Amino acid sequence: xxxxxxxxxxxxxxxxxxxxxxxxxxxxxxxxxxxxxxxxxxxxxxxxxxxxxxxxxxxxxxxxxxxxxxxxxxxxxxxxxxxxxxxxxxxxxxxxxxxxxxxxxxxxxxxxxxxxxxxxxxxxxxxxxxxxxxxxxxxxxxxxxxxxxxxxxxxxxxxxxxxxxxxxxxxxxxxxxxxxxxxxxxxxxxxxxxxxxxxxxxxxxxxxxxxxxxxxxxxxxxxxxxxxxxxxxxxxxxxxxxxxxxxxxxxxxxxxxxxxxxxxxxxxxxxx
Length: 272
Prior knowledge:
Shape: elongated
Number of strands: 4
Radius of gyration: 20 Å
Strand order of the largest sheet: 1-2
Largest sheet: 2 strands, antiparallel
Order of helices and strands: EHEEEHHHHHHHHHHHHH
Strand content: under 5%
Number of helices: 14
Distance between the termini: 39 Å
Helix content: 55-70%
């Protein structure tokens, strides 16, 4: 569920060769930044930009409609926000996300760029723009925006951008670089479930089975099982030889996620 600050969408990844869509769906979004500032260089004092309260109110209402899936109402409110302040970065950020949902990538690109040009330290917009570029498979550009977002000393949640960079590079097949970003994110927030399950997947791929089990256990302290987590658990316990855990994971996957791709993979593997 989207919130006024962030949302993470649960992924469904079973192997590096078939995980791209799940990884990109996992990107953690920041919809509104805490405040607006002017300036781009770290040695230049940050200057607070007065917030147009009318633009702020319409943006918050628009985001509420967006969370509810009411795209037309969200669009109207966000347009009214820009009428009140054409340079209000959070409104452009939200309109970019809405435009992408409406399958209007050109409009999304325009509003992301307007959000960042209006407030060059809006890490929320840079994080979201990185996610957009990643879904366009523009890996290097996406990584650059994630890096910019995380490097902002005013950004309250740099681990979101670091996680997104890791997921994006993992989708591009750059496993080692992805692992570096994810480890950095988990140093900041050890309970970040999206990063934990991604690290479990990477550890499995690298045959570090005890590590994969440990990351999966940490993930389950923060989130419920998904088809992806159960399939990772099945593969790990097959290698480590814990038959009870294997049977438990298999039963949960077949019983609770009967129509999932992971269940089909499990059934196919049992025939071999």
